Each structure stands twice: as structure tokens, then as C-alpha cells.
Amino acid sequence: DAGITQSPRHKVTETGTPVTLRCHQTENHRYMYWYRQDPGHGLRLIHYSYGVKDTDKGEVSDGYSVSRSKTEDFLLTLESATSSQTSVYFCAIGDHRGNQPQHFGDGTRLSIL
Amino acid sequence: DQQVKQNSPSLSVQEGRISILNCDYTNSMFDYFLWYKKYPAEGPTFLISISSIKDKNEDGRFTVFLNKSAKHLSLHIVPSQPGDSAVYFCVISGSARQLTFGSGTQLTVLP
Q: Between β-strands B56-59 and B62-67, what pairing exists: parallel, antiparallel or unpaired?
């Protein structure tokens, strides 16, 4: 177990509402990532962080924002959820040393009606 | 424009036989390649990796082969076991350690 907790694990909400997903790690890793998984696309990077208050965009960042005020927490926010953001969201953490593999949480299944 | 392509969405093999999963990539600048395995309702887990300076890496029943001239990666599982049934993702590590995933191959190992 890589010490990653995602919350909530499941959420159903309505279009236009704000949604925040939380990723918490106990490994003190510098890098944290948010991905979404959709059929036929594998996992796609939304945003990532390389330190406290240091974040950058990934491949599919439109409609999402992130914040990292502490090493252990990385928040993903959908300011106004749309049905196209229905997906499974995965958080990952990574070490700064060489090419150590990323470790993933168990995901949050988000449904936007 | 997909940078990592897994052209076989699914693969079925008999227990004890070899499973071969394939992956093609487009950018010759990539220098680190990984395979992740994913069970339903769980996050992906790291399986095996290979650097571009090598053409083979082995870990128990799992071997990854890299053909740089063909921009082709393959994962061999020998012998295949029912517990290996999962979705396998071919993954490329880029800048800032960002990962680019293929679309995945569902492997089913039949008892």
C-alpha cells in the first residue's frame, strides 16, 4: 500500500455544481498527479504538482483547477461540473529520484447528471 | 494524436501459455517505458519498466522487450496465470515524470 487515500470514493452530483476531490498521501513524495480514466483513452493527465503551491497543467486541464497547500494534500476542483466530466479520477504520487514509478490511489468515481 | 497505441483491446490465453501484449509509440525521444496492471475498482499498479538504453528487462514471469528502431514495446508473461487477468497499460514517462498511457489491453487467462 503506497499510502494514498482518495476521497470521496464515489460521488453523484448535478451539472453546474462545484466539486472537490481530495488526495492525501503519507509518503512525503514531492510529485502528485491527477488523472482521469475514460473508455478508450486509458488514463489522461489533468494537472500535476511538483511541490507545495507549485502546479502545472496536463493534457486535459480545461474545466479543472488544483491546489496544494501542504505536501500531503492535493485537491482537484471542478468549478462548475459538466456531464463530460463524468469519469473515474485517479491520484498518483511520485518520488523525485530518477525514474521511480508513480503509485496510484484507488480512484474516485464521479457521476454528473 | 495518440503517442502510445495499444491496438488490441483484448487478449485471451490459456493458463500456462505465454501472453504477449504489444504497444507502439510515436516519439523517438521517449527514454523510459513502463507497464502498469489494473484490476477493477483499483488504481493501476506498476509492473515492470525499461530504459531506452536496454532492449530487454526481466522480472520473474514478466519480460519487457523494447525495439527502438520499430518504436515497439512488448510485454511477455510466462506462464500465464488466472490471477494475471487484468487491464494492462503501456506507459511512457516524459518530462516532469508525466506519464502518457495507452488505451489498455484486457487480458483474460482461461483456467
A: antiparallel
With beta carbons less than 8 A apart as the criterion, state whether A32 and A74 touch: yes
* Cβ-based interface (< 8 Å): residues of A facing B: 4, 31, 33, 35, 40-45, 48, 50, 56, 58-59, 90, 92, 94, 99, 101-107
Interval A65-92: pLDDT, tens:
999 999 999 999 999 999 999 999 999 9
Q: Which three cell numbers stand for residue A47?
A: 494537472
- Residue A102: closest CA among B35, B72, B26, B8: B35
In this structure, what CATH number is given to the domain that contains residue A56? Answer: 2.60.40.10
In angstroms, what is the C-alpha Rg of chain A? 13
Domain count along chain A: 1
Measured distance CA(B5)–CA(B8) in Å, rounded: 9
Domain of residue A14, residue span: 4-112
Phi, then psi, of B82 in degrees rounded to 5: -55, -35
Class of domain B4-110: mainly beta
**pLDDT for residue A97:** 63
Residues of B engaging A, defined by a Cβ cutoff of 8 Å: 4, 6, 32, 34, 41-46, 49, 51, 89, 93, 96-104
